[in-house]
Design brief:
The protein contains 25 helices and 22 strands. The protein is α/β, with parallel strands linked by helices. The protein has four domains: 99 residues, Nucleic acid-binding proteins (OB fold (Dihydrolipoamide Acetyltransferase, E2P), Beta Barrel), CATH 2.40.50; 114 residues, no CATH class; 191 residues, 3-Layer(aba) Sandwich (Rossmann fold); 159 residues, Rossmann fold, CATH 3.40.50. Helix 9 crosses helix 24. Bound molecules: adenosine-5'-diphosphate (ADP) and magnesium ion.
Length: 703
């Protein structure tokens, strides 16, 4: 064991109380944990503000040199506070402490000069800093490093024990002074050389105490590379393990069902991209290895059709399939279109959702166990224990981001061996994210829309232009088309959201009155029957306008609808906007997506709306979304059910390092699949350190 694995309480400056808080607040339990608690950013320590120049509330942190003119304790009880009046010749400021009042009082000295560091607030023209970090100018000169000083993430509770950003910095200084010599290289020497990486000790030193911009850059690269290499070694090992097991169902026959459908039923020519993907899937199905394939393609690109063809192949080989959709509406819609297209072929399809009545459900379950159903379509109701297949061989999961991984895992347990799995998503996953999160899946993409579709025109309007929007809707309705109006649904305040929707519904109903117009509303809280009825009315064209929350994001297919109005569009994420837009443009007519927003927009919201207007390319939007929001937000959502916890690499920025690390990992594993050779010992340990991070998406371990 390395001395670095010791408890953090052995560090100078850390007592029991601070140790406990460091663990709780930052997950820092050992010395090594602190060593890997990297600065969030750096401030130029040579930059000393003049108090008189700090007039902008927008500045996050300032540092100035000032003398204490007055020190006093005011108030009592929980209002007790220490106030220090300081000045630097250019102006005055007030420093305030509410916690540790007596302790601070003893530490500070009137008439002495200090370096003050903190978040300024300006109130009535007065500059205040609450709980600043403060140190004597003498102490400030003893710190290591060049001109840049790390600003460390901290929390309010840590701040209360003098472990704010600068307090942590001081601990890191102690850590390096006493334990820096124990840092050992974590990668094989040949590897460090071959990839021209900065040695670990140098990298860790420079990430905390950059000697120069250039050294910092090299340090970052090294640490990011190592982190991403760990992830890649892990995911790629899973993939090679799956291949090596060779226990995939073999489905070599192309039989009557597939041929009958392909030759007689397919109402159109497949696109080139669809043909390619069908080929890729067929290749997997005869390979003897279990398929784990991710299929990406924009809304309407024809993914479902590809999944259906694979299910027909499975049936030709005596295997059952299932198709799991994220919502009731979508499941029923898939069922309607699949049973329509395959009617009379002898392909037995059924649908099972939470709303399926008991008698019907019992019948379906019995048939399923007898092998009398070839394809079962449904929602997560398919995952229930009592849903037992006779011989499940192929699973399609539609819109994967809606399902937790836990849920998916249960499907694999429904046969003696793992079925082939096709995970479909219309939310394009940026390449770097896919390689990291789905690194053990093979990827296919349908990057071509069926012919004859006109690109959707997207326009951004402000409230003042609403009448023009209504005018456009009337025109389209007169031409026989239909429109959606969507209101945002934000989980935290459901009540208010539904109020939005109801108000909107009333408003739209007044603008588009009966008998000329028929407006209906749809939202997630309605009963299944009501939803079905509303959808039927819209689908059959009885209703002209569907007012809805974002429940329609996934899965509504009404080719006659040509207008999508998105209210408060600034409140939607980019991928959600793109999904919603995909609800129109499914027919041959020109379609429109209208983004309504308020006048005041944050810079980020503006970028989102501009991007929507500019492009229909889902992959480009996904890349941009990743850049705007960062990987944490995309993958950290409840619905994604995925964990990714990278300390330093940023999937939005570090695409090239991901590629380099993946290539390196592939090369290593090719030569030494188990990382068994002695010179790869450090790599094996690295992989093991990362193996629990991706456990949740470890498809190969689930059976
Ligand atoms: P996705 O699941 O990718 O959203 P679907 O499979 O639901 O797309 O297809 C969208 C629509 O396009 C459906 O009405 C489908 O019948 C139709 N479609 C699919 N492939 C083609 C094609 N090659 N040519 C014409 N229309 C197609
Ligand atoms: Mg679909």
């Amino acid at each position: 064991m390395s001395p670095l694995d010791n408890d953090i309480k052995f560090l100078a400056g850390v007592d029991e109380r601070r140790a406990t808080l460091l663990g709780k607040e930052l997950g820092v339990h050992t010395l090594r944990d602190l060593l890997y608690h990297f600065p969030r950013r750096y401030i130029d320590r040579s930059k000393i503000y003049r108090i008189g120049d700090i007039r902008d509330d927008g500045v996050a942190w300032v540092q100035f040199r000032a003398r204490i003119d007055g020190l006093s304790i005011l108030g009592a009880g929980h209002k007790k506070r220490l106030v220090a009046e300081v000045s630097d010749g250019s102006g005055h400021a007030q420093l305030v402490w509410f916690q540790g009042v007596d302790w601070m009082m003893k530490r500070l000295e009137r008439g002495r000069e200090y370096i003050v560091f903190g978040k300024p607030t300006i109130f009535n023209g007065e500059l205040d800093i609450v709980h600043p970090e403060i140190e004597s100018t003498l102490a400030a000169q003893e710190k290591p490093g060049g001109g840049m000083q790390g600003v460390y993430g901290s929390t309010e509770k840590l701040g209360a024990v003098q472990l704010g950003a600068k307090g942590i910095y001081a601990l890191v200084c102690n850590l390096w002074r006493d334990f820096g010599k124990f840092v050992e290289e974590g990668l094989p020497e040949w590897f460090v050389k071959a990839n021209r990486l900065m040695p670990l000790r140098e990298a860790l030193y420079n990430i905390h105490f950059p000697q120069s911009e250039q050294m910092l850059k090299a340090a970052r690269y090294r640490l990011k590379f190592e982190e991403l290499l760990g992830v890649q070694l892990d995911v790629l090992s899973h993939r090679s393990g799956r291949m090596a097991r060779g226990d995939g169902f073999v489905m070599g026959r192309v039989g009557e069902l597939f041929n009958g459908f392909f030759n007689e039923r397919l109402p159109f020519e497949l696109t080139g991209a669809q043909k390619r993907v069908v080929k890729e899937i067929r290749r997997d199905m005869v390979s003897g290895c279990q398929m784990n394939r991710l299929l990406q393609g924009d809304v309407g690109s024809g993914k479902t059709l590809v999944a259906l063809m694979a299910s027909l192949l499975a049936a030709d080989n005596g295997f059952q399939s299932c198709l799991m959709a994220p919502t009731e509406i979508l499941a029923r819609q898939h069922y309607a279109s699949v049973s329509g297209m395959t009617e009379g072929l002898g392909f037995r399809v059924a649908v099972l959702t939470g709303a399926t009545r008991k008698r019907e459900r019992d019948r379906i379950l019995a048939q399923l166990e007898q092998g009398e159903i070839d394809l079962l379509i449904g929602t997560h109701a398919l995952l229930e224990q009592r849903v037992a297949f006779a011989n499940l061989g192929f699973v399609t999961i539609d819109e994967q981001h809606r399902f937790g991984v836990e849920q998916r895992a249960r499907l694999w347990t429904k046969n003696r061996s793992r079925p082939h799995i096709l995970v479909m998503t219309a939310t394009p996953i940026p390449r770097t994210l896919a390689m990291t999160l789905y690194g053990d899946l093979d990827a296919s993409a349908i990057d071509e829309l069926p012919p004859g579709r006109k690109p959707i025109k997207t326009i951004h309007f402000r409230e003042a232009e609403r009448l023009r929007v209504f005018g456009a809707m009337r025109r389209e309705i007169k031409l026989g088309r239909q429109a959606y109006v969507v209101y945002p649904l934000i989980r935290e305040s459901e009540k208010m959201d539904y109020q939005n929707l109801y108000d909107g519904f009333e408003y739209i109903s007044q603008e588009f009155p009966l008998p000329e117009y028929h407006v209906v509303a749809l939202h997630g809280k309605m009963s299944g029957d009501d939803k079905t009825e509303v959808m039927r009315m819209f689908k059959e064209g009885v209703a002209h306008i569907l007012v809805a929350t974002s429940v329609i994001e996934v899965g509504v297919d009404v080719p006659n609808a040509s207008v999508m109005v998105i209210e408060s569009a600034e409140r939607f994420g980019l991928s959600q906007l793109h999904q919603l837009r995909g609800r129109v443009g499914r027919g041959a007519e020109q379609s429109y997506c209208i983004l309504m927003s308020g006048d005041k927009l944050s810079r980020e919201a503006r970028s989102r709306l501009e991007a929507m207007v500019e492009t229909n390319d889902g992959f480009r939007l996904a890349e941009l979304d990743l850049k705007l929001r960062g990987a944490g937000d995309i993958t950290g959502t409840q619905q994604s059910g995925m964990a990714i916890d990278l300390k330093i690499a940023d999937l939005g920025q570090d695409g090239r390092i991901v590629e380099a690390a993946r290539a390196a990992a592939m090369g290593i594993l090719e030569a030494d699949p188990l990382l068994a050779s002695p010179e790869n010992l450090l790599l094996r340990q690295l992989r093991e350190r990362y193996s629990n991070r991706t456990e949740e998406i470890d498809f190969s371990q689930i059976s």
